[in-house]
Structure formats: C-alpha cells, structure tokens
Model the fold of this input.
Amino acid sequence: MIELPKGYRFSGVSAGIKTRAGAKDVSLIFSDKPCVAAGVYTTNQIVAAPVVLSRSRTPCDTMRGVVINSGNANACTGSRGQQDADEMTRLAANACGEATQSEQFLVMSTGVIGRFLPMEKIRSGIAAAAQSLGPSESAFLDSVDGIMTTDAGRKIASRNFQIPGGDYRLLGMCKGAGMIGPKMATMLAIVVTDAPLDPVDAQRALQAAANRSFNCISVEGHMSTNDSLVLLAARPSPATPALQGSDLCNFGGELTQLCIELAKKIPDDGEGATHLIEIHVRGANTDADADAIARSIALSNLVKTAITGGDPNWGRIVSAAGYAGVPIQPPRTALKLNQIPLFDRGEPLPFDAKQVSSSIRASKLTVIELDVGLGPGNATHWTTDLNTEYVRFNSEYTT
Amino acid sequence: MIELPKGYRFSGVSAGIKTRAGAKDVSLIFSDKPCVAAGVYTTNQIVAAPVVLSRSRTPCDTMRGVVINSGNANACTGSRGQQDADEMTRLAANACGEATQSEQFLVMSTGVIGRFLPMEKIRSGIAAAAQSLGPSESAFLDSVDGIMTTDAGRKIASRNFQIPGGDYRLLGMCKGAGMIGPKMATMLAIVVTDAPLDPVDAQRALQAAANRSFNCISVEGHMSTNDSLVLLAARPSPATPALQGSDLCNFGGELTQLCIELAKKIPDDGEGATHLIEIHVRGANTDADADAIARSIALSNLVKTAITGGDPNWGRIVSAAGYAGVPIQPPRTALKLNQIPLFDRGEPLPFDAKQVSSSIRASKLTVIELDVGLGPGNATHWTTDLNTEYVRFNSEYTT
Done:
C-alpha cells in the first residue's frame, strides 16, 4: 500500500499512441494548488521540444501539474514539435479547469525520435486523462503505466519522514531501460512531495540528488534527447513555512535516497540485463575524478561482457580506469570484485578464478571496488552487463 | 608480391606462448644498420611494461630493431614486468649479434593482461627468431603472423613512391580486432621505410599520420594498455640527406595514407563485425570538434546495433552527436546515411525506410555523413557494428 503525498491527483489512459492496443500512453499529475516545481534535464544539445519548454518553466512556485505521453519522443521535430509541446500544456490546462494556465504545466514525451506527435490522439487522451484524475493508489499506478515504454515493470519508490513540525511523504516514479529510438525508452522521472520548499531550495536539492543518482546510472551510455527529472512540492497550507537549515538538509538526504532507489531500477531493468553492476570508486583526488573513473568503467563493453560471462577478467576494469582522463597511479591502485582482492598496488594478486566466477554467476548484483589511493574523492555508479539479448533487441528491429 | 624496403630482415616463430600448438608468437624486425625510430603509444595511464620501455627510446636515430611477443600483454605486472620487458630487448640484442645493445631495440607485447611473461619460452623464442631472420617476403609474413591474436587474417599495406632524388618504399603491418584481455587483441602496428628521415621529422610525421588513422578507429572504444605504433626509417646510405620541405610533406602524405589503409583493417576485422562504418563529420568549428563528434557517434552501441539490424534509426546518430561535448546546433545540422538525406536543418525529412535499410544490408560498408554547418572542421572515423557475435565472443569465455 502506497501512501500518497497530500494534495495530488493522478491518471493514466490509453490514447492509441503506442501500437499495442489498450496500452496507457498519456498521464497527468495534478496538484490541487499551485506548488513548487524543480527540474533537471538532459545536457544533450540535441534536445527534445518538451525539454525546451519544461526547462524554461522550472524552478517556480506556481506549477499545477505535469502532462506526459509515451510512444513518441517529440525530438528532432523542429518548430512544429515546439508548437506541439506547447499545445500539450494548453490542452492540459483547459482540460483540468480551475482557471489553470498552460504555463502552469510541465510536459514530457518519450518514445521514437524524429516523428511528429499525433495531436488528435494527444488531444482526446489529455481530455480523458483529466476526467479520470484521482487521489487513489490505482490512479497513481495508472499514471506510472502511462509513462512506461520498454520497461519490464513499474519503477516506483516512496519514503515517509519526520521533521520537527511535520510528517512528510516523498513519492517517485521513473521509466527507462535503454536510451532512445523506436521501441526504446528514454529516462523520465517525477517525484512529488508534500514537504514545504522554496523553489530555489527545491532546485538545489534536486540537482544534488540527481548528481548522486540519475547522473550515476547507465545502460549503454547513450545520452537521450528527452531525459527529465522533475520534483513537485505542494505546501500543506499557505501558512506552513518552507523547510530551512538542518530540516532542509534532512529533506535533501531523503530525496537523494529516494532518487538512488528509483535510479537503480533503471539499469536493474536494462534491456536484456542479467546483472546489475555496482561500481564504487574511492581514493580519487576529488568526487568529480571518482565519478569520471566510475563512469569509464561503467561504459566499457568489455567490462560489461566479462560480467555477463562470469569472467574474472580484471585487466578490463583497471585499464578502463586508466583512460578516464583523471589522475590514477598503478602503484597506489587496488581492486576488489565481489569483495575478493585481485590487484593491489600495481601487482596482480593470486586468486581462485573459479571462486570469483562463481560469485558473479551466483548473484544478480556484482560489486566492483576500486581504490586509487590518492585522496578523499568517491563515487558510486550502477550499470548493466551487456549480453546478446541487448544486441538482439536493439538490432533486430527495423523501422 | 610485396616489395620490401631495403635494409630490413624479418622473422616470426612459435615459442609456445599462445595455447594453440605451432602458432607463431615471437617476431623480430631487424635493421641492417642503425636507423631512425619514432613511436606513438597508448595514452592510458595503466600502461604495459613494454610501452614504458619503448616510449623512453623513441624518437632516436640509433635503433636496430623491434622484438614482439603475442599471447601475453605484460601489462599490470609491476616491477617484475618492467624487468621482463628490459630482458626481452637484452635477449634480442644478444641473439642478433653485431655488437648491438639492448637500448637499440623496441619491445611490444599483446595478449592477456595481468600475467607474468613465460621468460623461458620468450628466451628460446627470441633465439630461434634471430636465427631465422631474412629479407624475404615469406620471412616478413612470418613476422606478421607472430604479432596476431584474434585477427581473422594478416593486416598489411605497402606503398612505393617517388620523390626527386629517389624511389622509396613504405611497408606496414598491424594487428587488432578487439581491445584487451584473454584471447583479445591490442593494437600494434609497425611501419618500415627506406626513406631518409631525421628522428624529429619522423616523430612528427608519425604523430600526424596516427591522428588521421589509428586515432580514428574503434571497435568498442576500450583503450588498451599496449597500443603501440612505431616507424623505422633506414637511411639508404650515410650520405643520403634526410627529406626536407615538400619532399618531407609528400612522405608524410604517403605515410598517412598507408596508416589509414592499415588502420581501417582493424574495425573491418572487428570481433563479430558484419559492417565497417565510416563516419564523416564536416562543418564543425575545428578539426578537434569534428573528431569529438565522430568519436561520440562511433562509440554509441545504439548506432552500432542499428547498423547491425539495417535500421535507418537516424535519431540515434544525431543524438550521439549532441552529447559529444562540443558545439552543435540542430537548425544547422544535416545527416545522410549511404548518401540518402534523412535530417536537414533541425527537421526530419521524408524518406523511404526500406530503401535505406536495403542499402545498409547490401554492403559491408555503411557511410554516415553529418554536416553541422558551423565551420571548416572535419574528421573521419571508422568503427564496427555491434552484434551478438561480439558479445558472445567477449562474454562466453571464462579465464
């Protein structure tokens, strides 16, 4: 049983955008009152129309909701795509009534790149979604279904936390299993809370949470044109003061934990994946250096295929760290795989290859720990292995 | 029939380092007189012992030869690995006689990472290789066989060219099909010429050629610990002056063409590859920007799997360009796939998907042309597609 934050209604309907009959593909998230909104978006320079629009509207404290379609990314669609994204928010505002304005909606799209949105279907879908808005768990789950594409299942997370002065709730959903294209998923995530926040604080907390969660995951490393993470924060009453100081820090910690929980679900559901690979890098000069090293390991097809095969081929991991573009010195570097030491201070260690191989095969989770022995910087990334299913899925489809 | 540059002898023998019985795994290239040597090496910070040693010995004008083993990369092997690399050059100098010194040899290794070299086998292999040195085509082909690992066939190229004052020859070999690890190949390339060169000019010409050839290819983008490209230039006689001015420019052009011809053979033989993908980027602000965009496209698994499947999924190409980290503006960008326009100035173009798909399926070579419309910068990269054979090859092996 999911406890919904107070003040929100949800819906998800089938508008016929996805080819599979009856699949939900239009979702609405609506706040009963104007709320704070923050957003973190793709840094790709080829950016989808809905991202351009939503980015221009966050952070703010007058937001009413988010309208989302799946099955079409509205990316690489030029000025017509921009008009269509704008029209989606106008349709949502009109359908939700209460004198809401189009500027009070964010918009997200996910699916095939380079095709214009089917606006007739979008129009009737948004109307139907507005009519079925509700504050129930089933309505929330409908809205989750409406943002999914190649996802094997729903990706949701929730947290309740107490701060002197109140009990608050965080509820999040995300989608994504591969990056882009026909039948592909781009990453979208929406988190709603009833904690009282100032817009600038909300934006800072969301960026910090993203840096430790959604910015630390990969499936194949192809950056999408549509990635969007938004936070809505509906203040319980106009009189409730916004969180500050240590309360705001606590909220930030809760938000980061929730985002990590959500974000890990994406590589865990990576297309074809049989392993979730968790990469801890310690001892870098800075957190940014550790992040670069973890990313380099996470994006190596040779590291990923070694894990697929249960192969304790640690040279692939160490060499991927070596080309991350940040300082690393072999004589200070140590590597463990599933807690078994393999390489220490520039020298290979004797190890039982069968034991390491068994430990990889025995668990969905593989843990890589690399200590580069230079400083206090650390980072954790999550990725998938790479197997023939991923390749088949992404190559055996023809437009 | 290969025309050998004057002044060199070659050999390749089986020393039992590779597991397959009789496979050649120790090669020698020997210059009759001290010659000019230049080298370009991996920029990975995790660098194999032979690279450390060879890098310290180029450029110079006193080199006598190169000793190479395959089947073991002598990487991540600490101080013992460094001693072993040094010992290989000492063994080569002793075995080749003529009072050559160990410092007059370069050394290369390729194969599994993290294991110590079997020095007894290396010792007898080098002795046997020195005894079978010859200036014949068959001896040259033996030396090519001795550097191969997962390569499907020999990768060689030769050019003859005239410069006022002489006829000269360039002859090159390289190896590589995947990047590192057990049963994996790391990139090695050796080019020999009888053109007279100064060491500094040789080094500059080689770096320039590498930048347009070996630095523009990828299979999966995992940078090896062992990549080495060396050029030997044996002056016909002490009296022959080194090439200068336009003659040196002409030599540089010939060397670049030879290196491109050699380099393309690596992704063309990429593990499991069914397509060679040639990526032309034009209109970037600088050549370096064009290089970054071409590299980003070449390294995208989603681009690679689309080509595998004959899928005209151009959004994957454009979006990969968008996250290369250099300026690109959709309204100025245009894309062609096998000469068919798909995207122009930010808008999708109508096209016949079946026609594009057929053009991909009909040819081993797929050509991507991206014009970003900003400036004079251009670059060309070559990569493979990504198919289930690559994944199977790299995952279904266990140490």
About this structure: DSSP finds eleven helices and 14 strands in chain A. Residues 8-265 of chain A form a domain with the L-amino peptidase D-ALA esterase/amidase fold (CATH 3.60.70.12).
